[in-house]
TrEMBL record:
InterPro entries: ATPase_NBD, ROK, WH-like_DNA-bd_sf, WH_DNA-bd_sf. Coiled coil: none annotated. It comes from the Bacteria. It comes from Streptomyces finlayi. Belongs to the ROK (NagC/XylR) family. This is ROK family protein.
Length: 418
């Protein structure tokens, strides 16, 4: 995950400064620990505070249960060996709930962002009443919370990863679900509270699922130093997200990234969004399966598409190649507009990359005006397995804990009204 080591101004009071510095140290231990072993000396060098100041902050974080220490670590430099520091594997945790067209996935992560609980159920949510879908999701989440408590993890909040236009706690429009103006946060929170009598309510937030998958890719994926990229996820629909300089670009109303509804052909097939010829109608899961002659209601239709493509089935290979060409044409416009370092393809596209990437790369090479795109350049990439929306949602909850650990010290499952 990205650290935010921003210094405070000179007018900040002592308590604010200390809380800020506790956040810096906690983030630094997490980041150092992800790369190897963290020590007080290493954290001091990373955050720019004296060793004495870091030691005092570390002691407070140890006492509060956010950090643990063990053994000695040898840096190879002169001086005494340091004590290895790690973020605690117990205590505050985040709950992420992804609600998609044909499944619900729930994830609980700890302070390090490690997925500790995962439950996924394949459900056909199309046409089902929103309250029913969110109640089913709350049931899966409640079971995940029970598993988390068995590991001495205490989720401090829940985040919903939802398809479509998400803003102000509601799904404004999710064409593939048939949702319009659905107060998703309120419905989910009410259902979850009803399943956990006697326990404090969890605060609930929500975000577009492609945005959260992109954040998971940024924080946990294999992007290395890449901080600006366009993320596409292929499912029933085609979702997109923009990350620029390590920050999610939401747009003026929070709706940026809806690349699946960029029009490829104004006279093309009618889309559920109300337009015609959207990219989704050429590169979405239903379009791919239809072109390949695969029944989308059969068990494992995407796995069957991959199997046929791998076997050299001409119709399957042609279907994926055509989707790749359409993706490349639309992506070239986005690349010309925002100039990302890379384009990352997730969802069903990840497993179809051997047949999807070459035609997409070819379109990008011919249409990106800078001339900086070429086949095999590595700028078109498959997402990592870590880049999923449920984990991104759970990790987003933990950003509040990392930003102000004092606010969560000694707390189990706080009751917070939205």
């Amino acid at each position: 995950m990205k650290s935010n080591l921003t210094p405070l101004g000179p007018k900040a009071d002592k308590d604010t400064v200390r809380r800020h510095n506790l956040s810096l140290v906690l983030r630094a231990v997490r980041d150092e620990g992800a790369a190897g072993e963290a020590t007080r000396a290493g954290v001091s060098a990373r955050v720019g505070l004296t060793r004495a100041a870091v030691s005092s902050l570390v002691e407070q974080l140890l006492d509060s249960g956010f950090l643990t220490e063990s053994g000695k670590t040898f840096s190879g430099q002169a001086g005494r060996p340091g004590t290895a520091l790690k973020v605690a594997r117990t205590g505050p945790a985040g709950l992420g709930v992804e609600i998609n067209i044909d499944y619900v996935s729930v994830c609980v992560v700890d302070l390090a962002g490690t997925g500790r609980v995962r439950q996924t159920e394949h459900l056909d949510n199309r046409g089902a009443p929103p309250g029913e879908v969110l109640t089913r999701a709350a049931g899966i989440a409640a079971r995940a919370l029970g598993s988390a408590r068995e590991q001495d993890l205490h989720p401090v909040g829940a985040a919903l990863a939802l398809p479509g236009l998400v803003s102000g706690g509601s799904v404004r429009q999710a064409p593939n679900l048939g949702w319009n103006q659905v107060p998703a946060e309120e419905l989910f929170a009410h259902a979850l509270a009803g399943l956990r009598p006697g326990r404090a309510a969890l605060p609930v937030s929500s975000e577009n699922e492609a945005n959260l998958a992109a954040l998971a890719e940024l924080w946990f994926g294999g992007l290395g130093r890449t901080r600006s990229f366009l993320y596409l996820t292929g499912e029933i629909g085609v979702g997109g997200a923009l990350v620029l300089d390590g920050e999610l670009l939401r747009g003026a109303h929070g709706f940026a990234g809806e690349i699946g509804h960029v029009v490829v052909d104004p006279a093309g097939p009618e889309c559920r969004c109300g337009s015609r010829g959207c990219l989704e109608q050429y590169a979405g899961q239903a379009a791919l399966l239809r072109a390949a002659g695969i029944d989308e209601t059969a068990p494992g239709p995407v796995a069957e598409l991959e199997r046929r493509a791998r076997a050299g089935d001409a119709r399957a290979v042609a279907a994926v190649a055509e989707a790749g060409r359409m993706l490349g044409r639309v992506l070239s416009g986005a690349v010309n507009l925002i100039d990302p370092e890379a384009v990352v393809l997730g969802g069903i596209y990840r497993s179809l990359m051997p047949w999807l990437a070459p035609p997409a790369d070819g379109e990008l090479t011919g249409r990106v005006v800078s001339g900086l795109w070429s086949p095999g350049s590595g700028r078109l990439r498959a997402s990592s397995v870590a880049g999923d929306a449920a984990r991104g949602a759970a990790a987003l909850v933990m950003q509040d804990v990392l930003a102000d650990p004092v606010a969560y010290a000694g707390r189990d499952e706080p009751e917070v009204s939205r």
